[in-house]
Amino acid sequence: MVISVANQKGGVAKTTTAINVAAGLTQLGYKVLLIDSDPQANVTQVFIHPQVEIELDQSLYHVLVNFAPLSPIIRSTGVPNLDFVPSHIRLSGVDLELAQAFDNRSARLHQAIQLVRDRYDYIIIDNPPSLGLLTINSFVASQRLIIPVSTAFFALTGLVQLQETITMVQQHQLNPDLSILGVVCTFTETTNVSRDVEQQLRQHFGELVFETTIPKNVSLEEAHSNHSHVFDHAPTSKGAEAYKALVQELLARP
Ligand SMILES: Nc1ncnc2c1ncn2[C@@H]1O[C@H](COP(=O)(O)OP(=O)(O)OP(=O)(O)O)[C@@H](O)[C@H]1O
Ligand SMILES: [Mg+2]
To answer: Is the model's pTM score more than 0.85?
Structure first.
């Protein structure tokens, strides 16, 4: 199954969720590929040695712009059963670079994934904070979406536009199979604002909102700077507990 983690709002824990859901799935024995489709390359920075520089032709850019095969670009994260596809800052120009393309430019990632799909139980795609061509490529390539929403003020801004984009992908036959696996409340804390926003989300999205919420927890941030995931870095932390519960919950959904 291919799952995108997306929300055009920045800093809502897309990357943290992509990494820790992917790692949580490997802990249960699944083989997972994590695709970094964000020009900010945060997943790549977590799993690449700081001194190592990714060349353009070793990144997702080469696949999306030059039709290179995905397979030679896949790297091991060092975490058992977890591979990844690195991003490159030049991905930020993809919208412009492909503006004149005559092929179905929103299906390039989908096409590239087909040849490696059988090797993995799950392919998880981390997305940039935008609804541009990179995110559209991910939506066309995915069956399911996980939407992290930070329970801070302004959290709900943009969710209507996100839903409209999903509907557009479904209705224009770009990917009729796309659906929301779940909305996950992130950065939850025991404040009135956090509780109110969570309540509004549950009112708006109903059962699509996962029961599991991801609390503010410093171990999650520390795991990134330690070039790891939370189950490795702080297995007994609140962050690890929350992502473990989220993985169990999402596996139970169709
Ligand atoms: N539950 C949490 N508790 C504390 N810090 C967190 C939590 N989740 C994420 N963070 C930290 O918050 C920051 C933003 O998270 P992250 O990078 O996952 O968001 P993002 O949605 O991917 O951002 P962007 O839109 O820029 O890609 C990061 O520094 C991350 O380590
Ligand atoms: Mg990110």
So the answer is: yes
